[in-house]
Design goal:
The chain is built from 13 helices and 17 strands. It is α/β, with parallel strands linked by helices and 402 residues long.
């Protein structure tokens, strides 16, 4: 299927190749239309439910929660919080459970994580005088056996991504969560599904996962809107991060009480435009055979890796990882300079470590070039990339810079 026709970017940038979807996906035409629909026809505050006209916003918000719940295979749409994005989601989860930590307690993470799934845990560990424990990485994959072996009665939180943003490897978070709870049923499990949900669905119902975060802009939706799912179990200790309008049940001169539902975590006016846009994106994705697309992109990555391996001076870092991401370097050329060369030739990629700040010790590189594919990419995009890399000559990286 030609998905390009559904994304305005391609019409407006006919001479460019987009290979940076792990940073942000392109945005759908229907998303733009949904946002404009809110602006043109509704524009109400969802806290106003005093007429049949203003109730439209609440209907779309509730529907979007249900769409997300279906994506997660969860019957708990009332346990999905709208946030400004995945990073914000992780921060409010960490802050909302930090009171459950005592001095000497342990938080297990790993070195492949995005900074957004490292720093919030560092922050509360420092505040509560807890220990950060690192699970081992083996052959660019989370060593699940090592993670399980490091769980003790002092382990309070385990956080990991079920699809990493630089290496691209994936793990079965649902099965791993069950193993974790068998070892210590009191551990809070946080899954960063920001990358995973761009091409796959989850199965929360058949898991022991406590938190899941995601962002609309990785799912063909707008920026500035994300979500945080929380389990019934963790909801008993999870405290709101933002207090203000719309999240309180009662308020007087000496005290206040929270609402009894997800609303207690959503103080203030939500990003209604963003939710309208995400609603449209989720409906679009519902019609896609994601498993078929995932497998197609895995094969496209294999083709890319095979063609890259034929080019002298190119070293593929994550060859053999079944994903939509390839990272490589061109010998003797700094990754940012080579990414700039590709940009001069109309190819948009990413260089550096893409916020995976601790991964350098696992890949023996301080910077790489990342190619990340999505549903709108095809063999012609890869062929053009290969042709541009093949014609590279030392010094070409300076074109456009001097």
């Amino acid at each position: 299927m030609n998905y390009k026709k559904d994304f305005p970017w391609f019409k407006n940038n006919p001479n460019l190749i987009y290979l940076d979807s792990a940073a942000t996906s392109l945005k759908l035409e229907c998303v733009k239309e949904a946002i404009n629909d809110y602006i043109d026809n509704w524009s109400y505050n969802p806290h106003n439910i005093d007429s049949k006209h203003t109730y439209k916003c609440i209907e779309v918000i509730n529907e979007t929660r249900k769409l997300l719940a279906n994506f997660l295979n969860s019957s708990e749409s009332g346990k999905i919080i709208f946030t400004p994005g995945a990073t914000y989601s992780i921060n409010i989860a960490a802050d909302g459970i930090k009171h459950n930590l005592n001095e000497g307690d342990e938080i297990i993470i790993n070195t492949m994580e995005h900074a957004s799934n490292i720093l919030p845990w560092y922050k509360i560990a420092e505040e509560r005088k807890c220990k950060i424990i690192f699970a081992e990485i083996h052959e660019l994959r989370l060593n699940e056996e090592d993670l399980i072996s490091k769980i003790t009665n002092r382990t309070k939180i385990i956080a990991f991504a079920n699809a990493t943003n630089l290496i691209g490897n994936k793990i079965n978070a649902e099965k791993l969560s069950i193993r974790i709870k068998e070892k210590n049923p009191n551990v809070i499990i946080f899954v960063d599904a920001t990358q995973y949900l761009s091409l796959e669905r989850m199965d929360i119902k058949n898991s022991k996962i406590d938190f899941v975060c995601c962002s609309a802009h990785k799912m063909f939706g707008p920026t500035g809107i994300g979500a945080l799912y929380y389990s019934d179990w963790v909801g008993k200790i999870f405290k709101p991060y933002i207090v203000g309008g719309g999240m309180n049940n009662t308020i007087n001169k000496s005290s206040f009480t929270y609402l009894n539902d997800v609303g207690k975590y959503e103080g203030g006016t939500p990003n209604v435009m963003g939710i309208f846009g995400w609603n449209a994106a989720l409906k679009y994705v519902e019609k896609i055979d994601l498993n078929k697309e995932k497998n197609r992109l895995i094969e496209l990555k294999k083709y890319l890796d095979n063609e890259l391996s034929k080019i002298q001076n190119v070293k593929i870092i994550n060859k053999g990882i079944n994903s939509h991401i390839t990272i490589f370097n061109y010998d003797g050329i700094f990754s940012q300079d080579f990414a700039s060369y590709l940009g001069v030739n109309g190819i948009i990629v990413r260089s550096g470590l893409s916020c995976a700040k601790l991964i350098h010790e696992n890949i023996n590189n301080n910077a790489v070039i990342r190619v990340s594919l999505s549903i709108y990419n095809d063999k012609s995009d890869v062929d053009y990339l290969i042709s541009v890399i093949k014609k590279f000559k030392k010094g070409d990286e300076l074109n456009g810079l001097i």
